[in-house]
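Customer escalation, tier 2.

The customer says the design service returned an amino acid string that "doesn't look like it belongs to this structure." They asked us to rerun it and document both sides in this ticket. The original structure tokens are below, unchanged.
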């Protein structure tokens, strides 16, 4: 899934060390798939191969996405007392609230109250209040972080995402994603396959530049019909005032019927005059003028919190010394550096030989690494 041009990835733990860099020519092969030949012999087939650099870039991208989604939120706090937050990461627990029930939980509750459950990450939602532990979860399931909850959060808005369903095809993400990208509508916040919804792009720069450089907001075909002025936003950087357009002028052009609209720098182009503001109010999309609703604001706050909590290597070393002592910290860093060195040697050797790294190679490397640790353990102890 992606939002405003950025891919959405599953959260991953914080990195414990700086990523290693390797030549782009080196390749890692995905696990082999076994197939049976006509004569009954097993044949190993390579599914796909990627370079080490691509793997590291993917991991870095996953880490950055996780930081943006969770960096500004406390993993040990239920956000219910904060009310209907302008924007927060929301999850659905299919285990506790299967269809037709719809409910959402905050980041802290997803970790503390629903560990081991079937959880669907919904990215972020606006004006949502945590449901964890209310009657939707049954009489016996209570929130472990904040138990006192009302019967319902009457202003929460739900859709089929809370059943794990996405797009007009009701695909269950990620099982039914089939490799297609999904984008989130700026208005209704539902998700759609880009291949299932034809779209028109409205550029911010009139010069021919790569569109991926321009952050774009997606408005699905259904929401374009609700706020048809979107279909008339011209390309360029000018603010678009639509309050004086007649109802006839605001009709969605026939060629754009059933199409989504991708508008670069969408919120920057919206007019804030009294007439246009009234249109947003009537269309129930006044949140478009709220800076706290904007994903960019949400991500900026996450970046600031992550940056403020990052420790230097010296600070990490001092904390480790407090926990395990000087000798224990020394052993840890020796082991970490040795792993980096051996893995780099392993990859470089395969690159020099011109060989792909197979699943068996990885297993052998792990066994040799473990054997080395076993031999050193008596001496280190």
């Amino acid at each position: 899934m992606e939002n405003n041009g950025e891919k959405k990835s599953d959260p991953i733990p914080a990195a414990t060390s700086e990523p290693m860099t390797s030549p782009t020519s080196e390749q890692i092969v995905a696990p082999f798939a076994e197939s049976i030949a006509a004569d009954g012999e097993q044949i190993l087939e390579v599914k796909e191969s990627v370079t080490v650099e691509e793997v590291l870039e993917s991991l870095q991208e996953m880490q950055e996405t996780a930081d943006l989604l969770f960096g500004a939120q406390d993993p040990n706090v239920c956000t219910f007392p904060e009310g209907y937050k302008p924007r927060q990461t929301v999850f659905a627990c299919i285990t506790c609230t299967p269809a037709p029930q719809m409910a959402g939980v905050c980041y802290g509750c997803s970790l503390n109250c629903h560990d081991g459950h079937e959880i669907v990450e919904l990215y972020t939602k606006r004006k949502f209040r945590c449901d964890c532990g209310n009657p939707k979860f049954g009489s016996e399931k209570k929130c472990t972080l904040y138990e006192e909850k009302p019967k319902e959060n009457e202003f929460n808005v739900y859709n089929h995402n809370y059943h794990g369903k996405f797009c007009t095809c009701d695909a269950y993400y990620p099982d039914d994603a089939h490799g297609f990208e999904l984008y989130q509508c700026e208005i209704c916040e539902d998700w759609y396959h880009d291949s299932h919804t034809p779209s028109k792009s409205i550029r911010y720069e009139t010069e021919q530049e790569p569109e991926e450089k321009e952050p774009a907001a997606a408005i699905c075909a259904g929401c374009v019909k609700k706020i048809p002025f979107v279909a008339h936003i011209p390309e360029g950087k000018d603010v678009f005032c639509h309050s004086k357009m007649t109802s006839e002028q605001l009709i969605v052009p026939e060629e754009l019927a059933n199409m989504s609209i991708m508008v670069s720098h969408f919120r920057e182009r919206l007019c804030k005059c009294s007439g246009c503001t009234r249109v947003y109010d009537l269309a129930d999309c006044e949140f478009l003028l709220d800076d706290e609703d904007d994903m960019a604001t949400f991500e900026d706050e996450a970046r600031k919190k992550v940056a403020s909590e990052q420790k230097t290597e010296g600070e990490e070393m001092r904390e480790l010394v407090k926990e395990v002592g000087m000798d224990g910290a020394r052993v840890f860093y020796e082991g970490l550096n040795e792993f980096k060195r051996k893995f780099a040697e392993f990859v470089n050797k395969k690159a020099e030989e011109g060989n792909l790294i197979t699943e068996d190679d990885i297993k052998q490397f792990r066994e040799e690494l473990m054997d080395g640790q076993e031999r050193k353990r008596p001496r280190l102890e």
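Tier 2 assessment: The sequence is consistent with the input. The CA atoms of residues 229 and 250 lie 6 Å apart. The longest strand covers residues 119-128. Sent an explanation to the customer and offered a walkthrough call.
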